[in-house]
Task: inverse folding
């Protein structure tokens, strides 16, 4: 995409704190995915009259931890506020969120995140972070706009969300994507979030081109979609500007099926959310003691881990960066090093064939059937010469698909490299008998030796040790030569 | 001291009724406009009070840091959840369509 | 004397002593209800079956020598904005005409644990928004002392039920005076506890920042008894306070010691009916005869309590009532029109389901919170609230107790003020300060005007329920009006 003209993008990212066991304001389980509709609700998250919210302590701890990881300043005191609007997925027709109210700041603000995009470093400022509750889910049989009625499931209602708002520092859609990947890595390293869960990270974006109006794009729910949606919107706005049409402030909805943004025709005055303090929840103080305790407990962050990978394992920066981008992958790597010992080969295999297999099978590192132990064993077998690289690649595939160990697969498939001299000699004997002309040629021509070696390899389905086979063929030929010379 | 705006027009009442999703009859609009204006006129006395540099009181108890542990408790039985539903389909709540 | 005229304590003691059975008492109560309910309309729902079941249980436990609670066998009524599992809870509104909660309010759990016998849900102003119980969808409640007059509100049903012998005890809720006002008008005792003392979990919210559930009874002791059961910290209510001791009866009759009593000048000057003031000063002279001097104290910011209360309360209400949209419970529009989208569906449902006063307050509350007006109305009120609270804090530095009349007027005729909302709002001027400051306040009968009860209000600093109740007990003694019986 050409970089003509100023593009300004800001993101509002909503991340579920998936590691919490309960919702934000009630004790319903946070494990709502796949449950039958409306089986994971209580009076509080259903918004029954008379119900009251009670704040999840861990959610606050996680939120502060994220704030620190994103280099933000936590507020000394923060309160909750009601965001009032009507929609069928909101059981109370208001959302408990946070807002700037006189005397109180948001949970955290003024941070930044540094990430790599197109091999260059970029820093984006974080404007604010706050906690809020997730609404329920709507279903429109036949599609939005065509359904004769709407169905509502409140299982997700009340799940803890962290809203992370950036300054409009992004200048290209690719940057937004890289940022989100870095953010995901940070959140996963903190242990508060699992990005592989459906709907765990959603975002809205604000896009403006060449100083035109700010367009809000809502409903972006995957990393791939971020770049697509933003690219589409930038191009759309550019086209309008070319035609001399002014782009005004508006709200658009990203349609992930048709891959376009559609105007939502929301009147601006509708956006009056009438924020005021949530009277049923008390303020939260975040003092130095609390922050210190969180800092001590904080797990290793991606940047620090990357440095450590470089120093401790002698990996090049590129490798370290790739591994650390996915916490599960970095964990896998370290677990494997503990068993196998040599970091670079592991890194190579993980970054290459391993990731490729995962992608083809559409499986995450967490869910894949190959364990660090499996990989370590496979690499050892390679070191021992039991399998070649070529075979190892096939073994890896099989491990991925079946979950069986390398040694099991090798035995079952008969992929063990043949290093027994007697076995190869026997095959060689046979091949020599069947290919008298080639043998004669080989006695004079080097190249013909390869033909014989090739034939033996073929006969052994590639399992014969190539070097050994070569040696055996040459030995055989020289013995033959001797014989002939003697005659 | 700036006096708060005291009169509210029938159009504003209509807008507020829309924000609050309350459909009003023409008679109701007229009646409420009249009554609410009378009330607002009385409430306007508040603008006499000097509240410069006075912090707002957001909560009466002064309590802070009221939490609950992150331990799951049983949810409602789905029949209890749906028992008051005016409309339902399978186990979903049914609402009018969204255009 | 009929059993239902005994005090709650007396009837419980008789039941425990096996002089009478809980079932017997209950039968008499339901007979009384059959007699007078048609003239009063205190109840929206009666739970005969559940009540008799509980009464029999209590009798059986007592017969077996098992331990029973301190409210054992006492027939008790609950205001219909307090959630009762399996029993219709309507808030006096068409919007919830058929709503059955799947859970109990914390206070209800506590009552059941102490073996109270819940006889029914009482009438109230719709969503607790009112001073006369005239805005109920289920018709007005009438004052048992004169059925052409209002019983006060919004807990009019609860007060009328207790006053007329239809119940020994009742729970009401008080946001701007909704327990004390009907207590005053019906000649009974009603207490608004310190904000946070009684759990709000299960109380259908009108104005979260001010409301509390509280006891209504025919005398101070019974009131203290009920308070002892419902008070206490609840993890489900984040605004709930931890208190060490919730027994308000044992020290009730002990000597009070020296107390300084203050009369807020601004509350007894303008706009108070002559008869009411006369009654009040009668009481003051009785106190002075006991060597309890009463001194005037000025809290100038009292002038602003009505707008401050209403602007905050209406704003909160506009948000609290947003959930009533006909999707998950309650009244819902019949959708025949297929062109109806969710916006129109919500608007028509709510337009039909809510009464006029509720709609007015939602609109005004929406206005006070809306962009451009938030600072001038809502935020301004929150700041004024700080000043009002400061004024009371200052007064309590010099005084232990503050007293005033409960209502500026005696009970008035049904229909007299209902078309002039502002005139009704102004009736709350004496009760509102206690809600704004969160302090405990009790109303006890103090006198009559043409056979219509007039009450006096006693206030103390936050969490000083024991002081407020002791002073109330003492006052009850010197006034000599307790366990009153209207002629009905």
Result:
């Amino acid at each position: 995409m050409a970089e003509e003209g100023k593009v300004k993008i800001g993101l509002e990212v909503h991340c579920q704190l998936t590691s919490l066991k309960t919702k934000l304001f009630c004790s319903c389980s946070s494990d709502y995915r796949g449950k039958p509709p409306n089986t994971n609700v209580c009076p509080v998250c259903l918004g029954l009259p008379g119900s009251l919210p009670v704040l999840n302590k861990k959610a606050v701890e996680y939120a502060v931890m994220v704030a620190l990881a994103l280099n933000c300043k936590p507020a000394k005191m923060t309160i909750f506020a009601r965001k009032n609007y009507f929609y069928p997925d909101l059981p109370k027709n208001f959302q408990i969120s946070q807002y700037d109210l006189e005397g109180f700041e948001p949970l955290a603000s003024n941070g930044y995140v540094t990430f790599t995009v197109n091999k260059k470093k970029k820093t984006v400022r974080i404007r604010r972070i706050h906690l809020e509750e997730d609404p329920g889910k709507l279903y429109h049989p036949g599609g939005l706009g065509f359904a004769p009625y709407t169905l509502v499931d409140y299982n997700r209602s009340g799940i803890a969300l962290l809203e992370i708002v950036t300054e409009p520092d992004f200048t290209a859609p690719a940057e937004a994507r890289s940022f989100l990947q870095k953010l995901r890595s940070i959140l996963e390293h903190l242990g508060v979030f699992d990005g592989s869960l459906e709907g765990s990270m959603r975002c809205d974006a604000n896009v403006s081109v060449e100083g035109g109006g700010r367009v809000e794009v809502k409903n972006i729910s995957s990393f791939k979609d971020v770049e697509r949606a933003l690219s589409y919107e930038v191009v759309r706005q550019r086209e309008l500007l070319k035609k001399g049409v002014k782009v005004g402030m508006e709200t658009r909805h990203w349609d992930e099926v048709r891959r376009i943004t559609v105007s939502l025709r929301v009147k601006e005055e509708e956006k009056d959310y009438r924020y005021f303090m949530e009277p049923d929840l008390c303020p939260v103080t975040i003092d130095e003691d609390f922050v210190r305790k969180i800092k001590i407990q904080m797990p290793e962050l991606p940047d620090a881990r990357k440095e450590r990978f470089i120093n401790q394992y002698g990996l090049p920066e590129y490798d370290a960066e790739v591994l650390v981008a996915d916490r599960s992958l970095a964990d896998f790597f370290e677990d494997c090093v503990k068993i196998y010992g040599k970091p670079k080969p592991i890194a190579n295999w993980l970054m290459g064939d391993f990731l490729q297999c995962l992608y083809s099978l559409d499986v995450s590192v967490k869910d894949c059937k190959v364990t660090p132990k499996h990989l370590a064993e496979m690499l050892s077998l390679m070191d021992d010469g039991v399998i070649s690289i070529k075979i190892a690649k096939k073994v890896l595939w099989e491990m991925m698909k079946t979950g069986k160990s390398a040694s099991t697969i090798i035995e079952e498939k008969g992929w063990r490299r043949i290093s027994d001299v007697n076995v190869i000699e026997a095959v060689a004997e046979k091949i020599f008998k069947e290919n008298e002309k080639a043998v004669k040629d080989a006695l004079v021509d080097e190249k013909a030796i390869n033909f014989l070696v090739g034939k033996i390899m073929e006969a052994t389905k590639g399992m014969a040790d190539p070097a050994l086979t070569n040696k055996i063929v040459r030995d055989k030929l020289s013995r033959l030569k001797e014989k002939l010379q003697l005659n | 001291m700036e006096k708060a705006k005291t009169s509210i027009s029938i159009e504003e009442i209509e807008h507020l009724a829309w924000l609050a999703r309350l459909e009003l009859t023409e008679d109701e609009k007229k009646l409420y406009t009249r009554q609410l204006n009378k009330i607002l006129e009385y409430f306007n006395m508040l603008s006499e009070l000097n509240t410069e540099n006075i912090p707002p009181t957001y909560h009466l108890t002064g309590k802070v840091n009221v939490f609950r542990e992150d331990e799951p408790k049983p949810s409602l039985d789905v029949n209890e959840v749906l028992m008051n539903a005016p409309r339902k389909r399978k186990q979903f709540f049914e609402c009018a369509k969204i255009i | 004397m009929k059993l239902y005229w005994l005090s709650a304590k007396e009837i419980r003691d008789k039941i425990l002593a096996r002089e009478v059975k809980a079932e017997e008492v209950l039968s008499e109560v339901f007979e009384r209800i059959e007699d007078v309910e048609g003239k009063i309309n205190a109840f929206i729902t009666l739970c005969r079956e559940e009540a008799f079941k509980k009464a029999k249980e209590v009798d059986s436990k007592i017969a077996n020598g098992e331990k029973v609670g301190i409210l054992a066998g006492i027939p008790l009524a609950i205001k219909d904005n307090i959630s009762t599992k399996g029993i219709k809870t309507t808030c006096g509104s068409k919007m919830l005409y058929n709503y059955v909660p799947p859970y109990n309010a914390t206070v209800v759990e506590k009552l059941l644990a102490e073996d109270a016998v819940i006889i029914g849900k009482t009438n109230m102003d719709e969503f607790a928004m009112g001073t006369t119980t005239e805005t109920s969808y289920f018709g007005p409640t009438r004052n048992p002392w004169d059925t052409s007059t209002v019983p006060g509100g919004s807990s009019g049903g609860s007060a009328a039920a207790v006053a007329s012998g239809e119940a020994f005890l009742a729970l009401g809720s008080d946001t701007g005076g909704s327990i004390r006002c009907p207590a005053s008008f019906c000649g009974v005792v009603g207490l608004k506890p310190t904000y946070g003392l009684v759990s709000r979990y299960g109380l259908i919210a009108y104005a979260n920042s001010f409301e509390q559930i509280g006891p209504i009874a025919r005398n101070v002791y019974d009131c203290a008894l009920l308070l002892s059961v419902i008070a206490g910290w609840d993890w489900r209510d984040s605004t709930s306070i931890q208190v060490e001791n919730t027994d308000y009866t044992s020290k009730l009759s002990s000597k009070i010691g020296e107390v300084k009593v203050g009369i807020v000048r601004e509350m007894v000057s303008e706009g108070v009916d002559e008869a009411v003031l006369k009654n009040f000063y009668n009481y003051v002279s009785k106190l002075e005869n006991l060597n309890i001097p009463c001194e005037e104290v000025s809290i100038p910011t009292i002038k602003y309590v009505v707008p401050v209360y209403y602007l905050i309360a209406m704003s909160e209400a506009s948000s609290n009532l947003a959930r009533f949209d006909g999707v998950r419970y309650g009244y819902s529009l019949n959708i025949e029109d297929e062109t109806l989208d969710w916006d129109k569906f919500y608007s028509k449902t709510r337009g039909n389901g809510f009464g006029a006063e509720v709609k007015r307050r939602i609109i005004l509350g929406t206005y006070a919170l809306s962009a451009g007006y938030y600072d001038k109305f809502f935020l301004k009120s929150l700041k004024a609230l700080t000043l009002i609270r400061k004024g009371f804090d200052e007064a309590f530095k010099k005084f232990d107790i503050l007293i005033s009349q409960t209502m500026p007027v005696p009970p008035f005729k049904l229909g007299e003020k209902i078309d002039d909302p502002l005139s009704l709002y102004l009736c709350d001027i004496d009760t509102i300060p206690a809600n704004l400051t969160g302090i405990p306040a009790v109303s006890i009968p103090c006198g009559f005007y043409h056979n219509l009860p007039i009450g006096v209000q006693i206030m103390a600093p936050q969490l000083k329920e024991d002081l407020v109740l002791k002073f109330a007990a003492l006052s009850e003694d010197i006034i000599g009006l307790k366990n009153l019986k209207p002629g009905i």
